[in-house]
Amino acid sequence: MAIHRLSRAPKINYARAALGVTVIASALGAHATAASADTTDPAAASAQAAVAPEAATQARIPTETTVNVTAAQVLAMAKAQVGTSENAYGGGTKFQKWYADSQRAAETIARDGGSRQDYINAPWCSMFVSWVGAETGARPQVGWDAWTVAHAKWFAANKRWGSEAKPGAVVFFSWSGSKNLGAIQHVGFVVKDNHDGTISTIEGNTGNGKVEERVRPKSQVVGYGYPQYAG
């Protein structure tokens, strides 16, 4: 499980962030890249080209797969987690523990390497989104992954990817402003479009190591995944 695949929002405490990279790199036995670094794949010339290698990361959403869950319910569940914080090692949250025990972890371990234990202290923004989807019964539409890039490519492969901020959409960020899916570093839920060049969000694994409500510039958004909610 390569560390660069499990991206998080930049931490304010950079010394702690550097320590976290060292700890996780040691646990994974992988070449570590700073979690806030740009992970752009130069070979990916376009979003479409970036989709192809990961099109089978998760099964395509069957046409008959629907969920009786609204965007408002998903956002309410996400908001109820605001304040949840990681421990001094960057882990210990219920989102990481849930993912480590999930069926999906076995699948992503087969893809990325590592072990279930490695997820316990790994960057958890995508695990948070996945947990909210599972807890509300919207997992078939929200998806589940620990790697933000693969999570985004799953939406794109299922033709549920776009550039419009909608409540309940899954928003993917690149701090460099890149629009390349391979450059994605962070993920959360859209609460609303503020119509001033920013969006309001709920995100896990923010720069403060918590679930928080944030206002983000659209310039940092790579794109949006659209779960097909009820209503």
Automatic annotation (TrEMBL):
The positions making up the signal sequence are 1-32
Transmembrane ranges? none
Give every Peptidase C51 domain span. 119-205
> Could you tell me the keywords of this UniProt record?
Signal
One Pfam family per UniProt: CHAP
Query: Has keyword Signal?
Result: yes
Q: What is this protein called?
A: CHAP domain-containing protein
Q: Which organism is it from?
A: Nonomuraea spiralis
The record lists the lineage as: Bacteria, Bacillati, Actinomycetota, Actinomycetes, Streptosporangiales
